[in-house]
Predict the structure.
Amino acid sequence: MEYILEAKSITKKFPGVTANDNVNLNVRSGEILGLIGENGAGKSTLLKVLNGIYPYGSYTGTLVLDGKEIKPENTRDAMAEGIGYVPQETNVLKNFNVAENIYMSDLRLNRLKPADKRSKSAFVNFSVLYKTTEAFLKDNRINLDPKADVRKLSIGQQQMLMIARALATNPKVLILDEPTTSLSSGDVRRLFEVVRELRKKGVGIIFVTHKLSEILELTDRVTILRDGKNISTFEREQYDSGRIIADMIGREIKNMYPRRESKIGGEVLRVENLTVDHPYIADTNLIENVSFAVHEGEVVGLAGLVGAGRSEVCMSVYGLTPAKSGKIFIRGKEIKISKTSDAVKQKIGMISEDRKRFGLNFVWDIKHNIAISNLDTLVKGPFVSSQEMQKKVTPYYDKLRIKAPSLNTKVTTLSGGNQQKVVIARSLNTLPELIILDEPTKGIDVGSKNEIYQLINDLASQNVAVIMISSELPELMAMCDRFVVMAEGRVAGELTKSEATEAKIMEKSVVSFKTGRQEANNG
Ligand SMILES: Nc1ncnc2c1ncn2[C@@H]1O[C@H](COP(=O)(O)OP(=O)(O)OP(=O)(O)O)[C@@H](O)[C@H]1O
Ligand SMILES: [Mg+2]
């Protein structure tokens, strides 16, 4: 039999949406299959069918594993059949440590009990648990401490933990839904190693990503979905990135990074010697003496490795984390920002990287989530005009190509990328004079990335000052007029657009202030 797992003619409907329309997907043992498609194309839905989150009977079509039809009713069934799954959004169990998270399911815990107590008691032998976990993590080259408190793990580490948890079931097929969105480049390298190792062992891997470079580098075959339907599947020898993009979005992108005529005006923001305390480590500064400025119509890139303190600087300017010392000036006037409402009053907007924490109200629809950021303009007497709201919000909805049945759709039902677009729309709707974009294209498909670049250019040409953080260096290079490179919580240097090269930015990013040397840092 050619395939370890086959999904045949899967159709999965939600009210108003056919998320999967007769979709076929298959993966061989020892193969890495890429799955790619626009935000809302139906990727995560299909994976949830394979994984039993959507139980047998809630869709039509058949699943065949190892030549035999399976009918998973829940995730445990799918796991028992040998399907491992890492969801798009991490959901680690916050009250348990790393080892407990990995061996949480009773299915797995059972193996750690003394032989005569299996399936009979809740007793777990902790010394065995830690030993097993340590050996397992080492085997899979995953760098986590079995006893670590998961609340202190970075998003990237949590992602690695989710992967470890799936691997611990010894899956025949491993499903990874956008595993690299929150990983540092070093973690991506390590993840690729882990995945290649699994391929060698004969595991079939399904790998979802919006990064074409990852498809080209890692996968053996790629399947493309659009609007819930199969469009094409290519073997590695046939890969052609133009063709893959065209199949994905149904059009060609002429100009991935649209040009902007920069007209840089007066200073909007100046940060002087900003210093922020480390939240966990006493007598340590997370951010130390950071100074930089941003002008009207200027896009300034905060560059640096994950952990360099870029997001923390922005969070402080936006009033999310208090500064210990330093000054902030808006148009030359010193102001105090100790909470977000102070920043909003100064017409500062921010799109945060962590949309779960600072993002959406999940019980509201799209319209209200966007409009809430600027309700004053919609108030007519004692009422908020629904019609006005619709009118205000529609341009963002259209421009960002938010995929949903209507503006009245609840944001919980949106795909990950489309939720991100709502967050962006909400920030733009405040009509900020300074906007902070922390990883604005994370989880966004290439077609919509292109639209977001255009929106950033539009903002700049309307004299908005822009601060941008991105872990995709080519994107940052293309969009910014100037770069402030950070390392270890400090500014390691500034570069103008004409001076900047990827190599120069990287060189500054790895400066070590502690040793006074430049150090190789694998991020
Ligand atoms: N629980 C749900 N209720 C209603 N509609 C849903 C639900 N889950 C998904 N959808 C809709 O199904 C479609 C496919 O969503 P899905 O999450 O599979 O997309 P995706 O390809 O994973 O996108 P992304 O790249 O943004 O993660 C979308 O239009 C989405 O709004
Ligand atoms: Mg998805």
